[in-house]
Amino acid sequence: MDDLIRETARRLATARRVVALTGAGISVESGIPPFRGPGGLWEKYDPMEFAHIDALMKNPEKVWKIFMGDMKRVLLAAKPNDAHLGLARLEFLGILKTVITQNVDGLHQMAGSTDVIEFHGNFAWLQCMDCGARAETVSVDLNIVPPRCACSGIYRPECVFFGEMIPREALVRSQELASTCDVMLVAGTSAIVQPAAFMPVIARQAGAVVIEINPEPTPLTGHTSHFLVQGKAGQVIKAVTAEVERLLEEKRP
Ligand code: NAD
Questions:
Q1: 84 an active-site residue?
Q2: Which atom in ligand 1 lies closest to the alpha carbon of residue 27?
Q3: Does position 197 have pLDDT exceeding 90, yes or no?
Q4: Which is nearest to 177 in space by CA: 95, 88, 90, 100?
Q5: Ligand 1, residues 102, 120, 164: which to mutate, most atoms within 8 A of Cβ?
Q6: H or E stretch covering 229
Q7: What is the pLDDT of residues 29-57, one digit of tens each?
Q8: Domains with residue ranges and CATH for the chain
Q9: Among 51, 82, 165, 197, which lies 20 to 30 A Cα-Cα from 249?
Q10: Percentage with pLDDT > 90 across the chain
C-alpha cells in the first residue's frame, strides 16, 4: 500500500476533529465534469458568460438554455461514488465531523453524510427572482427556458454564482471548523475559487494537518498542504477508509 495512504489513515484514526473540504473533482467519478482541468466545463463555456450573476440577470434564457440545461442532465442522473461513500463511512465511524463542499450536486448527502455545509448552495432547489417562492428542481419543467414561477417571475437555482456572496451561515461555520479542526482533508478542488480555497489556509495557520487528494498539484501543494495523495478521489478515499477501519479494529480490546 502507498505510504501516503497509510499516513493519511493514521492521521485520521488519531485525530480529534477532522473536516473535509471537497470540490468538483470528487464528483468526476460520478460522471459530473469539473470546471477546470481536462474535460472541464470551462473548455466548453466561458465562465463569465454563463456562471456569473450578471450573465444570469442580463440573459437568463441563454444561461438556462446552455449551461443549466447541461448541468441538470448530468446532476440529476449522478449517483455517489466511492469518495462520497468513503467520507460518509468516516462520519459513521466517528472520525469525520463535517464536509464543507463547493459542489451543488447533493451527492454527499445522498451517500449518507449528515453534516454537510453547501458552501455554494445547491441545484436541488430553485427560487423565483421576483417573489422569492421556492420549488424543487425536479418538480419544474426545465424544457421551458427560462423556467417560470406561478407569478411569472424567472426561477434561478439556489447556487452561488460568481459575483455573489457566500451564504453567511455557511461561511461563518466553515471558518469556525477550519480554525478548530486538527486534520483537514482537501479533496478534488483546484483551490482557486475564493473564499473556499482559504479554508485550508485557516486550518494550516491554526495548526491542523492539511492533506490533499487530487490527481494534480494545486496552489496549496507544497505551501499550505502537508502532503498531496496523488490520485482519483474515489480510489484514494476508498483505500484510506479501509485502512482506517483496520486501524480501529486493531485498537479494539
Ligand atoms: P475545479 O473544477 O476548479 O477543479 C477540479 C479539481 O478536481 C482539479 O484540481 C482536478 O485536478 C481535480 N480532479 C479531477 N478529477 C478528479 C478525481 N477523479 N478525483 C479528485 N480530484 C479530481 O473545482 P472546484 O475547485 O470545486 O471549483 C469549481 C467550482 O465549480 C466550485 O465552486 C463548484 O461549486 C462548481 N462546480 C460544482 C460541480 C458539482 O457540483 N459537482 C461541478 C462543476 C463545478
A1: no
A2: 41
A3: yes
A4: 100
A5: 102
A6: strand 227-230
A7: 999 988 777 777 777 777 777 789 999 99
A8: 1-31+80-120+166-253 (3.40.50.1220), 33-77+121-159 (3.30.1600.10)
A9: 82
A10: 80
